[in-house]
Write a structure and sequence with these properties.
Blueprint: H1 5-33, H2 51-62, H3 66-79, H4 85-107, H5 111-134
Helix pairs in contact: 1-2, 1-4, 2-4, 3-4, 3-5, 4-5
Length: 137
């Protein structure tokens, strides 16, 4: 775990865990609601699914938003030779916070707590970006 690419791999694996969880809940919910995926013409047809199911899918989509910047930043730090011990710890903190964000959204979805965890993960990544910029000089 001495490379910044290990947290990147962990984030990718977590995204696949959420993907499996999404379909493990979505497919039975679609069957129960009588939704035939082969005949769907609009995503809005899935609006009848329970919120407990859609929250997991929403989180899976969230894992393809801000974490993309994390991936780019981690690869930049690795390639620029700026992936020091602190940046590796920050990368692990980011991954841990994003996993917490996923679990909060999927299981509880109390927005104030979820936003706090999201904001904290954003701050961690901002510190990583500032440290990357400082390593230029």
């Amino acid at each position: 775990m001495s490379t910044i690419l290990t947290p990147v791999l962990a984030m990718i694996i977590w995204s696949f865990i959420m993907w499996f969880w999404m379909y493990a809940t979505r497919i039975p919910a679609m069957q129960k609601a009588g939704i035939n995926a082969a005949k769907m013409t609009s995503k809005s047809e899935m609006d009848v699914l329970p919120k407990e199911v859609t929250r997991i899918a929403d989180n899976y989509n969230h894992l393809h938003e801000q974490p993309v910047m994390f991936f780019a930043l981690a690869f930049y730090l690795h390639l620029a030779g700026a992936a020091d011990e602190l940046n590796i710890m920050l990368a692990w903190a980011y991954v841990g916070l994003r996993i917490a964000h996923s679990l909060i959204q999927a299981l509880w979805n109390f927005i104030p707590v979820r936003f706090f965890v999201f904001a904290l993960s954003s701050l961690v990544m901002i510190v990583m970006a500032i440290r990357a910029a400082m390593a230029l000089g």
